[in-house]
Design brief:
about 210 residues, alpha/beta, Rossmann fold, 2 domains, six-stranded parallel beta sheet, hydrolase, hydrolase activity, EC 3.-.-.-
Length: about 210
């Protein structure tokens, strides 16, 4: 298969950020009396933060989420691309492959974080969670992206680190590749078309 477009999740696919997200959400929830193990937050990274907080029964979750945004912003200096991601994005650009991101972040979160990651900020395609009624694992974000940017679904690949990414791609009937460098050990990516271990594995698919 020759792909014209490659779409990426952001957290723990392009940027090594899932641990910081989980830690910050857990800290905010614990401050209002909801004590859930860090591992449970980490397993849910890939879904919007408000959904995670609601699932754990966090009272006044919007206030907690607002606090999360402030605390996360203070610690963005801890974030970094995974090794090989910058080279991958530059090589895809040189090869004329269209790239983009489909993320569970809203636009405010996306803009705040990608100030530190200009290659992501400059992506040709950006779909944030506030552009569709339902986030991943719904197919809506991917199908919205295909329709809005007039993509060829059969020649578009989505790459992510979580089961929510895989489920969204499957629901959208889009090819999916698991980002093994960022995924938690033991996740069953049985519905993935490709299992990638390094970012430069992507180049073998085009």
């Amino acid at each position: 298969m020759t792909y014209q477009t490659i779409l990426f999740d952001i957290d723990n696919t392009l940027i090594n950020s899932a641990n910081l997200i989980a830690e910050t959400l857990q800290k905010g929830a614990a401050a209002v009396g909801v004590d859930v193990p860090l591992a449970e937050y980490r397993k849910r990274i890939g879904r919007p933060g408000d959904e995670i907080l609601k699932e754990f029964g966090v009272p006044d979750w919007q206030k907690v989420l607002d606090g999360y945004m402030v605390e996360f912003g203070r610690n963005m200096h801890r974030l970094a691309y995974f090794p090989g991601i910058e080279a991958l994005l530059l090589n895809l650009n040189k090869l004329g492959i269209q790239t983009g991101v489909v993320t569970s972040k809203d636009r405010l979160q996306f803009d705040a974080e990608t100030k530190y990651f200009p290659l992501i900020a400059a992506a040709e395609i950006v779909t944030t969670s506030d552009l569709t009624a339902n986030p991943k694992p719904s197919a809506e974000p991917l199908l919205y992206t295909v329709k809005t940017h007039q993509l060829d679904l059969e020649r578009t690949l989505y790459i992510g680190d979580s089961v929510f990414d895989m489920q969204a791609a499957k629901a959208a009937q889009m090819d999916f590749a698991s980002a093994g460098w960022g995924a938690l050990p033991g996740i069953d990516f049985g519905s993935a078309k490709y299992a990638l271990t390094r970012p430069d594995d992507v180049l073998k698919l085009i």
